[in-house]
Amino acid sequence: MSTPTTSRTDLQAIEAALAHLSDPEIPVVSLAELGILRGVRRGAGGVTEVVITPTYSGCPAMGQIEDDVRAAIKALGQDVRVVTQLTPAWTTDWMSEAAREKLRAYGIAPPQCGSVGDTAVGKVKFSRHAARSEAVPCPQCGSQNTTEVSPFGSTACKAQYRCLDCLEPFDYFKPY
């Protein structure tokens, strides 16, 4: 039995097939825009590996993300190994500006800053707490007059806020 190999052309086709995959919890942003999709490479025996990093350990969407990646690659007629990489830990610094704008347009306040804090491992800094000193602008009306309702939003990576001007509730994507 021969082992499948992956050429550079195949890797580019795979990257193109993965580019449209959206986050199951926030369908307006792609896995690549969020920084969850870390890369495509040739693995052991030439098998294609797609590397993903969850936004936080235990993210319930990871099973769906893995299934979506496998389905996209299977549609190309290729085998794939999905590798979940936990180190370095995902950070909101990996989000693209396009992702931040799409979140805002969708009604989710994007993180105010990247990962901040006093702990660093390699080149990635980790936040001990979300920055609370800065006002979180309302994604509906832009007002800075907002308040945190709960540190937990619709998913663990978000907090629930309310605008005191337009009175609309909204999620805030916490910086990590």
Could you characterize the architecture of this molecule?
The chain has two domains: 8-84, Fe-S cluster assembly (FSCA) (GMP Synthetase, Chain A, domain 3); 97-173, no CATH class. It contains four helices and nine strands, in the order ααββαβαββββββ. The strands form three sheets. It has a four-stranded mixed sheet. The longest helix is centred in the middle third of the chain and has 13 residues, at 62-74. Mean pLDDT is 85; it is low at 115-132. By secondary structure, it is α/β, with parallel strands linked by helices.
Topology:
Elements: H1 8-18, H2 31-34, E1 37-42, E2 48-52, H3 62-74, E3 80-84, H4 97-106, E4 108-109, E5 119-121, E6 124-126, E7 146-150, E8 158-163, E9 169-173
Parallel strand pairs: 2-3, 4-9
Antiparallel strand pairs: 1-2, 5-6, 7-8, 8-9
Largest sheet: 4 strands, mixed
Q: What is the CATH C level class of the largest domain, in words?
A: Alpha Beta
CATH topology of the largest domain: GMP Synthetase, Chain A, domain 3
Distance between the termini: 45 Å
Number of strands: 9
Order of helices and strands: HHEEHEHEEEEEE
Using the 3D structure, state the CATH architecture of the largest domain.
2-Layer Sandwich
CATH 4th-level superfamily of the largest domain: Fe-S cluster assembly (FSCA)
Number of helices: 4
Strand content: 15-25%
The domain tally reads 2
Estimate the mean pLDDT confidence: 85
Report the helical percentage. 10-25%
Model regions low in confidence, pLDDT < 50 over at least 5 residues: 115-132
Radius of gyration: 18 Å
The structural class is alpha/beta
Q: What is the topology, as strand order, of the major beta sheet?
A: 4-9-8-7
Shape: elongated
